[in-house]
TrEMBL record, chain A:
This is Unannotated protein. It comes from freshwater metagenome. Residues 71-96 are annotated as: Disordered. One of its GO terms (biological process) is regulation of translational fidelity. PANTHER family: GLUTAMYL-TRNA(GLN) AMIDOTRANSFERASE SUBUNIT C, MITOCHONDRIAL. InterPro entries: Asp/Glu-ADT_sf_sub_c, GatC.
From TrEMBL, chain B:
It holds the Pfam family Amidase. The keyword Membrane does not apply. PANTHER family: GLUTAMYL-TRNA(GLN) AMIDOTRANSFERASE SUBUNIT A, TRANSAMIDASE. Keywords: ATP-binding, Ligase, Nucleotide-binding, Protein biosynthesis. It comes from freshwater metagenome. One of its GO terms (molecular function) is glutaminyl-tRNA synthase (glutamine-hydrolyzing) activity. This is glutaminyl-tRNA synthase (glutamine-hydrolyzing). Residues 23-468 form the Amidase domain.
Length: 96, 499
């Protein structure tokens, strides 16, 4: 049901550089887990409404007032790299 | 002194019989003495704790009014941020990170003069039932050091059972407060969803996660619940209503006339004989106390576990996208040649452990086009059916009861590479998270076959958390009378000497 290629593709979508041995191991385990959780389909009829959340909340608003927040130094305190009060990240676009 | 209840410790501090500093030092000494064996803590903040304790002592000296738990030490699960104190969530991806702010729960604890000793061990990002998934090594159950202390909050439960702290904070997404409480002979409460702020709690599955109190007694848990509960504008899913009167309920010690439902589907096959024996005895104790016992059926509970293992991984695959190596935490392979995406992929591979990867991949699958309706969509429908089951049950009874966990503490390593076997530990606790109501685990004895603690789960409707404490308090009093003292008196000593 779930192939080695599927797992490799999912890992790419999830931005995890899995090793080949991990892909093999996971493919077998996911097969077993998916077989077990697929049982939800037995009772999930078209007449049952889905629930995404225990509270019937829509939008929650508060007054738009200025309140204390982190300083740039605090916000950057855990950054792997920073420069001129900004997060420094590896290149996002290619050279051309 | 360290074997007292938190309420007794607070009374001693308030009366001037002991300083909070001495009380805190006693717990720090206990941690130094036994934590090498137990490994409940990932970080001990001795300096910060002693400073907090001295502040309470100074406030008392000035005649200021103290909160009901002022000066009492507490262990904080490492999934909750505390400003300047390392927070790892049991993961390598956050190793060394020091949060720049306090969680709302932490702010409330500090304002109440509760002394935070340090951060407790947990399954990585709260994914697990044994604390074996911590990147920093497992925690050991103080009742038997070769066994698991439950999970994900095994550090918090073990710290209580090892008398390293009288109070702890846990979080419960599928049972991570209640199952550790059950297997360590302690008390743990998952409050109503939205009853305690999630601001500053590192998210695993946002529609299920709930922080709550852990303690050695029902009253101590109630006192802590009142401190940490309540509305918070920083959490949009926080319920804007007063905290239920849990302390008063814990002191009632009377269940006469209460209607208590035994859930037919949470017992029987798959449950250890000694667990069922102690549970059935507890039912008779409740009957003897004047409660009306009614058997109820919740036919869709058997689908709760499969639904949970679609919903929680789906939400986690989204929530854990924030660990992207850009703004905080680990960054691997940034050689100024690799792209951001390549660095992200390498970092997440190096920083996440096997269970976290397994769940992210599973959730990514359940949410992907072509599979969404069959998996995540179906699981959401099961969630509705579970809520309907609870509504029907609570039309008949005031609370429901069941065993908390199908077994007592198992051996470390026993289920480590069998995810499905591990997931079954939460079979009785998960329905509550899916519906968003509240539940408690209290000790109900030792299983005859292995001498290990058994937990009893009490379940109440949303925002009726006080009912948990009413039933829990009454049962605890009855048990203590029958046992000649609290269950903890039967725990082995960790030091060879007198505890």
């Amino acid at each position: 049901m779930i192939s080695r290629d599927d797992v490799a593709h999912l890992a790419q979508l999830a931005r995890i550089e899995l090793e080949a041995s991990e892909i093999d191991h996971l493919a077998g385990q996911l097969e077993v887990i998916l077989g077990a959780v697929a049982r939800v389909q037995e009772v999930a009829g078209a007449d049952v409404a889905p629930t995404s959340h225990p509270l019937p909340l829509k939008n929650v608003f508060r007054p738009d007032v200025i309140r204390p927040s982190l300083t740039p130094e605090e916000a950057l305190s855990g950054a792997p790299a920073s420069e001129e009060q900004r997060f420094r990240v590896p290149q996002i676009l290619g050279e051309e | 002194m360290i074997t007292q209840n938190a309420s007794e410790m607070a009374a001693a501090v308030a009366a001037g019989e002991i300083t909070s500093e001495a009380l805190t030092q006693a717990h720090l000494s206990r941690i130094a003495e036994v934590d090498e064996k137990v490994h409940a803590f990932l970080h001990v903040d001795a300096e910060g704790a002693l400073a907090q304790a001295r502040a309470v002592d100074a406030a008392r000296a000035k005649g200021e009014k103290l909160s009901p738990l002022a000066g009492v030490p507490l262990a904080l699960k490492d999934v909750m941020v505390q400003k300047g104190v390392p927070t790892t969530c049991g993961s390598k991806i956050l190793e060394g990170w020091r949060p720049p702010y306090d969680a709302t729960v932490v702010t409330k604890l500090k304002n109440a003069g509760v002394v935070i000793l340090g951060k407790t061990n947990m399954d990585e990002f709260a994914m697990g039932s044994s604390t074996e998934n911590s990147a920093y090594g497992p925690t050991h159950n103080p009742w038997d050091l070769t066994r698991i202390p439950g999970g994900s909050g095994g550090g918090s439960s073990a710290s209580l059972a090892a008398f390293e702290a009288p109070l702890a904070i846990g979080t419960d997404t599928g049972g991570s407060i209640r199952q550790p409480a059950a297997v360590t002979g302690t008390v743990g409460v998952k409050p109503t969803y939205g009853g305690v702020s999630r601001y500053g709690l590192v998210a695993f599955s946002s529609s299920l996660d709930q922080a709550g109190p852990c303690a050695r007694t029902v009253l101590d848990a109630a006192l802590l619940h009142e401190i940490i509960g309540g509305h918070d504008t920083y959490d949009s899913t926080s319920i804007d209503a007063p905290v239920p009167a849990v302390v008063a309920a814990a002191k009632m010690r009377n269940v006469k006339g209460m209607r208590i439902g035994v859930v037919r589907e949470l017992g029987g096959e798959g449950y250890q004989a000694g667990v069922l024996q102690r549970f059935n005895e507890s039912v008779e104790v409740l009957r003897g106390l004047g409660a009306e016992i009614i058997e109820v059926s919740c036919p869709h509970f058997e689908y709760a576990l499969p639904a949970y293992y679609l919903i929680a991984p789906s939400e986690c695959s989204s929530n854990l996208a924030r660990f992207d190596a850009m703004r905080f935490g680990l960054r691997v392979g940034d050689d100024r040649a690799r792209s951001a995406e390549e660095v992200m992929n390498l970092t997440r591979e190096a920083g996440f452990g096997p269970e976290v990867k397994r769940r992210i991949i599973l959730g990514t699958y359940a949410l992907s086009s072509g599979y969404y309706d069959a998996y995540y969509g179906s699981a959401q429908k099961v969630r509705t059916l579970i809520i309907n089951d609870f509504n029907a049950a609570f039309a008949q009874v005031d609370v429901l009861i069941s065993p908390t966990s199908p077994t007592t503490a198992f051996k470390i390593g026993e289920k480590a590479d069998d995810p499905l076997a591990m997931y079954l530990n939460d079979i009785a606790t998960i329905p509550v998270n899916l519906a968003g109501n509240c539940a408690m685990s209290i000790p109900c004895g030792l299983a005859p076959e292995d001498g290990l603690p058994v937990g009893l789960q009490i379940i109440a409707p949303a925002m009726a958390d006080d009912r948990l404490y009413r039933v829990g308090g009454a049962l605890e009093a009855a048990f203590n009378e029958a046992w000649g003292g609290p269950l903890m008196n039967m725990a082995p000593s960790l030091t060879g000497g007198v505890r």
